[in-house]
Write a structure and sequence with these properties.
With 607 residues, this protein is an alpha/beta fold. It folds into 4 domains: 8-233, Rossmann fold (3-Layer(aba) Sandwich), CATH 3.40.50.300; 237-396, 3-Layer(aba) Sandwich (Rossmann fold); 399-451, no CATH class; 468-602, Alpha-Beta Plaits, CATH 3.30.70. The protein contains 22 helices and 23 strands. It has an 8-stranded parallel sheet, sandwiched between helices. Strand 13, helix 15 and strand 14 (365-371) form a beta-alpha-beta unit. The radius of gyration is 27 Å and the shape is globular. The protein starts with 7 loop residues before the first helix and ends in a 5-residue tail after the last strand.
Length: 607
């Protein structure tokens, strides 16, 4: 049920405000009506903002009037501006920390800091910094010492600075908890309580959360003064902006189904959500092996690599990101027009959070969720929570994928005809037709089939529907067969050695992503990956130029450069080190890992 929008006057004398982005008030206020200082209003106008969202229209006047607020708001509702603009109105050029924003993840901290910096474009004496773990402590200390007024950070690193005496909250005027429920879920409850207790009592506090469970209410009661409650429902607008689909797919068929969906989807970029870090690595590796431009983001990916991945996603060098929920927190990329729930979320709130990554900035988006036959209860829970109905679709068949690719090639061919300058190819076609008993139609059809990836091989029959139990048993049997095949198969290409291993926390997906991203190698040209204590080996079928080897050698995985070089033990594909250790081969005591990039994990050391 949609709730009426609230007028600006109501925000100043009503203790509890409920509103929705899906049903704007008949007389929508503009940013000029919110009471913002001239310099902030100028920055908002320069950024192209015209009409505030519901959370902005309700929260900004309340915060400018000095009130504490609690805001129930999902990702994508504009809450960063809702607290960021009043925050900047509360600080002055005096050096020292006057405003603090706590975020659950590094990605969100960077994003929020960037947004507040953009709002402060007309305030040259105001410095905004982000502080978080996984990166150097000294530059953060220097920025704090230089007098930064606004700090955006993760609870753990903020505690580090407090304990080392490099962060002084004595002059704090404004404190924000962003995505408070996620901070508590990640185990930051004690850190948040410590920071709030250390902050001066005479401060203004804003708390934002996607949900408002009892622990969040307890924080508000303990650390806030008579807060105004603002609730923004985004679910109905999510349903309007995002086409929501689902498919019933047995577990063993998920990667193949996902690959085919991606192959027929017209769009810019996609996020694929999985439940665990291990699944994140495996799905990302499998997609790359199938020729998809993909990368993985989970809690084991170092911060600098995360920033590079996000930049590649934004500028179009990366099309698919496989991520866990925690790693994707705060990720805001306008190119994303498809969200795939590879693993169906356990809670409806998580579903709404996930699909909120698309359908932004006036764009439409698509959300596709895979359910195994035993997970239909989750579908019904999601439909109840979103007050909508998800549309069931069937994964495309290989023939449909080939037809889609062929149609794409034909469109490109027609565009190429319009350009002209086809004298050379015309002559080659005429010569070939004169030399062979083939018609122009037959030749065109063969060229089209090749361009679409159809080599004439008999297509595999579509998978039969299976129950969850049979699906799980088949998966175990298939994995065992892959193990046996991995131990006895012929060598695949040339074997190279890279200078990262178990001690660096490296995973196969990181190695695959670096080699394909930096070396221009197709995922299908990568074979077996063996991870050892201090290094790893990978089989590569493609010929690597010196320039490609140089780029791969300088790529960083788990904080270390790969320093790729031909494996000195690789003599005509010989594998001399089975059962030996470290510099000669993988450990067989449960800590090693054999990984066949094309055929799954193999060997007793697999996990």
């Amino acid at each position: 049920m949609s709730l009426p929008a609230v007028s600006i006057a109501d925000t100043l004398d009503t203790e509890s405000i409920q509103t929705t982005d899906a049903a704007p008030h008949a007389a929508e206020p503009g940013f000029t009506d919110l009471g913002l200082p001239a310099e902030l209003l100028r920055a908002v106008t320069d950024l192209g903002f015209r009409t505030p969202t519901a959370i902005q229209a309700a929260a900004i006047p309340a915060l400018l009037s000095g009130r504490d607020i609690t805001g129930v708001a999902q990702t994508g509702t504009g809450k960063t501006a809702a607290f960021g603009l009043p925050l900047l109105a509360a600080v002055d050029p005096t050096p020292g920390v006057q405003a603090l924003v706590l975020c659950p993840t590094r990605e969100l901290a960077v994003q929020v800091a960037d947004a507040i910096s953009s709002f402060a474009s007309s305030m040259p004496d105001i410095s905004v910094i982000a502080v978080y773990g996984g990166t150097g402590f000294l530059p953060q200390r220097a920025a704090l010492k230089a007098g930064a007024q606004v700090v955006v950070g993760t609870p753990g690193r903020i505690i580090d600075h407090l304990e080392r005496g490099t962060l002084d909250l004595a002059g704090l005027r404004f404190l924000v908890l962003d995505e408070a429920d996620e901070m508590l879920r990640m185990g930051f409850a004690e850190d948040v309580d410590r920071i709030l207790s250390d902050a001066p009592n005479a401060r203004q506090t804003a708390l934002f959360s996607a949900t408002m469970p009892p622990p969040i209410r307890s924080i508000a009661a303990k650390h806030m003064t008579d807060p105004v409650d603002i609730a923004v429902s985004r679910q109905s607008s999510t349903v309007d902006a995002v086409r929501q689909l689902y498919a019933v797919v047995p577990f063993r068929d998920k990667v193949d189904a996902l690959t085919r969906f991606l192959q027929v989807t017209e769009g810019d970029a996609a996020i694929v959500f999985v439940r665990t870090k291990e699944a994140c690595d495996q799905v990302g590796t499998d997609l790359i092996a199938r020729g998809v431009s993909a990368a993985v983001m989970n809690g084991d990916v170092p911060q600098k690599e995360r920033e590079k991945i996000i930049e590649r996603l934004r500028d179009g060098r990366l099309d698919v990101l496989v991520a866990t929920d925690v790693a994707a927190r705060g990720l805001d990329v306008d190119r994303i027009d498809l969200v795939v729930n590879f693993d169906a979320p356990g809670e409806p709130e998580a579903y709404v959070h996930r699909i909120g990554r698309t359908g932004r900035a006036g764009r439409t988006g698509t959300a596709l969720t895979f359910f195994t036959p035993r997970e239909m209860g989750r579908l019904r829970a999601i439909e109840r929570a979103t007050r909508g109905t998800l549309e069931q679709i069937v994964p495309p068949t290989p023939d449909e994928v080939a037809a889609h690719k062929a149609a794409t090639v034909l469109r490109k061919a027609l565009a190429r005809l319009d350009v002209g300058r086809l004298g050379g190819p015309n002559r080659m076609v005429r010569d070939l037709l004169g030399e062979h008993d083939v018609t122009a139609d037959e030749l065109a059809a063969a060229l089209l089939a090749l361009a679409a990836g159809d080599d004439g091989a008999e297509p595999e029959p579509p998978p039969e529907p299976a129950s969850f139990e049979r699906d799980r048993k088949t998966k175990v049997r298939s994995a065992s067969a892959a193990d046996r095949a991995g131990r006895s198969r012929a060598p695949f290409g040339r074997r190279y050695r890279v200078a990262v291993g178990h001690r660096d926390g490296v995973r196969p997906a990181g190695i695959v992503g670096a080699i394909t991203g930096e070396g221009g190698v197709n995922g299908k040209d990568l074979g077996r990956i063996d991870i050892f204590d201090s290094f790893s080996t990978v089989e590569i079928a493609a010929d690597l130029s010196p320039a490609a080897l140089g780029r791969i050698a300088n790529a960083r995985v788990s904080g270390r450069t790969l320093r790729i070089e031909p494996d000195r033990d690789d003599q005509q594909g010989r594998r001399p080190w089975a059962g030996q250790r470290d510099s000669h081969g993988p450990r067989r005591d449960g800590h090693g890992l054999d990984h066949d990039h094309r055929g799954g994990r193999a060997g007793r050391g697999g996990r």
